[in-house]
Task: structure prediction
Amino acid sequence: MEPENSLYPITGACDNPNVSAMYLVGVLPVLLSVTRLRVVARLLFLFLILLAIVLLRCRTAYIGLAVEVIVMLFSYGKARNMISSHRWVVVVIGVLVCAFSAVKLYNMKRDSADGRLLIWKMSAMMVAERPMGCGYGLFPKHYNLRQAEYFHEEHGTERERRNASFVYMAYDDFLEHGVEGGVIGMLFLAGFYAMTITRAKKTPSLTGRAGVGLFSAFAVMSLVNFVVAGIQTWLLVVCCAAMVAADSRGRTDEPDETVGGHSSLLQRLVGAALVVLVLMLSVITVRMTYTQYRLGRIEERMSAGEAVSDSAFADIEDCAYSSEAFWNYRAANHINRNNYDEALESVGRALEYTSSPTSFMMQSHCLLNLGDTARAVSCLRKIGDMQPCKTPYSH
Result:
């Protein structure tokens, strides 16, 4: 796989260095829990992972690493006793280090930090305005429309306008769950982290001790970046949660069988229900994957300048009807054939799921060709309100 960034040729399935760095932070406590590794091998892996984290320059990873170190130190009795006996010295030093680190991390990528402050501010406002949420998967649509409204009413500062852009995520899992799932969604995520940390603390093994550090680090990193949206990071969290749960279950003194050593009827029913659920989800996943493949083939044909019949889109509509990409491609195909009424209808369906500038641009193009200049200009103004300093002047 070709590197996405020529300045740092990292390769693999993850093209975002932030996700790679956060994943490596999670790997550290797992590495410490592997007791079969020799000391030399463990130190070598530790050095390589820390070196990679430093080179990736991810502020979130630095914060997560600091949390892991602190939690792991407190998990050892001698270190905890030493810190307790000098608590005021530790508090003063901790405050000074936190203040110095906050300034350094902010100045490392100032524009990025200012952009995230705006996103967090807007997301918090949205949670306050709609405490029941707007629906999962709809964060980009509702956030960017709210940002456009915010700047249209001239509430933003010059710095906020300069750093505003089209946003796909909140860079804070708790706020994103709050926007999509409401306060209940935020509490659900917080409850998951609290439950896993508590379970890990009650596990009398190195696996549990490592789990406390890992879950604490990811809980804090979820406050300043995306963990759930990263496939590698969230898979690591879920797998480690399963390992800790299995470890703590295996150490309980309660027997794991009923009278006579046979599973109860309820256990069998639950097991059968889970098998059926897995099979249903597998069928749905296969259908969606195949539909995405067919949509990708259609996009390739359109990019090559081939004429695509609308029937090709109609064949996969029953499975792709909730995909904004499907409706955008269908609208673009109608535009290529000068069918502006049908294109406008398809763009309208896309805008039920997204507020992408591309969709608004196509809507404006259709309206302009249909003679509705006022609405076409309104679409362009909405794009400009979403990202005031990033919209070309020609629009």
Q: What stands out?
A: Confidence is low (pLDDT under 50) at residues 256-261.
